[in-house]
């Protein structure tokens, strides 16, 4: 999925990404190093948020100004650090990663961050971890297991405060959601999630066509 949407005559997505990267706020050296090491050490490194999406996430957090954030799917912690960077000194992000083999890698980068005191890492299934926290969140960033997106919506929605925001990654899934040729389990789950959100009168939603799509969802006040 193009950063700019389909049907626009750019010379190439790589050229456009390079242009955007040179015209937005720079990422920190820590984030640059984390991105590089993720690509060297991890399978499926394209799952990392990266510079363009990372600055977008930071901007959204700065605009929303949450004090308590939930992140589902830490991966290597790039987006986590971007969220923490935008929080006030009293803000916290609870990030949940299901793969315990990533814990040491994640903690190394959290500990290296000047915002480490704003980050609380949980290892486990978010569907089990979140109810056990006894917390309400002003904002959530969902980037976990795509097959579970519909279940995240059903089970985690009550933990978002009224007027709060839910940012969901990969909701365009490289354009596959709009292409009937793709009927794999992940694509079907994301389609079902998008349909659920679009028909849910408790929220309003916009989709930003950056990378694989970011859905920005606001829970109504009443």
**Count of runs of 4 or more consecutive helical residues:** 8
Approximately how much helix is present in the residues? 25-40%
Topology as a string of helices (H) and strands (E): HHHEHEHEHEHEHEE
Q: Mean pLDDT score, rounded?
A: 93
CATH class: Alpha Beta
Structural class label? alpha/beta
Strand order in the largest sheet: 3-2-1-4-5-7-6
Number of domains: 1
Beta-strand content estimate: 15-25%
- Topology, number of strands: 7
Q: What Rg, in angstroms, do the CA atoms define?
A: 17 Å
The 3D shape can be described as: globular
CATH fold node name: Rossmann fold
- The second-level CATH architecture is 3-Layer(aba) Sandwich
Indicate the low-confidence ranges by residue numbers. 4-9
CATH superfamily: Vaccinia Virus protein VP39
Q: Please, what is the oligomeric state?
A: single chain
Major β-sheet profile: 7 strands, mixed
CA distance, first residue to last residue: 35 Å
Please provide a written account of the structure.
This protein is of the alpha/beta class. It has one domain (13-219): Vaccinia Virus protein VP39 (Rossmann fold), CATH 3.40.50.150. Helix content is 39%, strand content 20%. The chain is built from eight helices and seven strands, in the order H-H-H-E-H-E-H-E-H-E-H-E-H-E-E. The protein has helices spanning 13-22, 29-41, 50-64, 78-86, 103-111, 126-133, 149-156, 185-198; strands spanning 68-72, 92-97, 119-123, 137-142, 160-169, 203-208, 214-219. The radius of gyration is 17 Å and the shape is globular.
Secondary-structure blueprint:
Blueprint: H1 13-22, H2 29-41, H3 50-64, E1 68-72, H4 78-86, E2 92-97, H5 103-111, E3 119-123, H6 126-133, E4 137-142, H7 149-156, E5 160-169, H8 185-198, E6 203-208, E7 214-219
Parallel strand pairs: 1-2, 1-4, 2-3, 4-5
Antiparallel strand pairs: 5-7, 6-7
Helix pairs in contact: 3-4, 6-7
């Amino acid at each position: 999925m193009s950063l700019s949407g389909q049907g626009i005559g750019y010379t190439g997505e790589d050229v456009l990404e390079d242009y955007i990267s040179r015209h937005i706020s720079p990422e920190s050296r820590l984030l640059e190093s984390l991105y590089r090491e993720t690509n060297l050490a991890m399978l499926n490194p394209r799952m990392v948020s990266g510079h363009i999406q990372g600055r977008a996430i930071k901007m959204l957090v700065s605009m929303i100004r949450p004090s308590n954030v939930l992140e589902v799917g830490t991966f290597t912690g790039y987006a986590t650090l971007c969220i923490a960077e935008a929080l006030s000194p009293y803000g916290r992000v609870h990030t949940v990663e299901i793969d315990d083999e990533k814990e040491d890698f994640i903690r190394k980068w959290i500990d290296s961050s000047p915002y480490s005191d704003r980050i609380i890492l949980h290892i486990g299934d978010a569907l089990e971890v979140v109810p056990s926290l006894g917390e309400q969140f002003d904002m959530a960033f969902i980037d976990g297991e795509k097959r579970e997106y519909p279940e995240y919506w059903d089970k985690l929605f009550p933990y978002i405060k009224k007027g709060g925001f839910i940012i969901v990654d990969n909701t365009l899934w490289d354009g596959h959601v709009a292409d009937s040729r793709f009927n794999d389990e992940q694509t079907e789950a994301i389609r079902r999630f998008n349909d659920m959100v679009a028909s849910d009168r408790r929220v309003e939603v916009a989709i930003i066509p950056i990378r694989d799509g970011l859905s920005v969802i606001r829970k109504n006040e009443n």
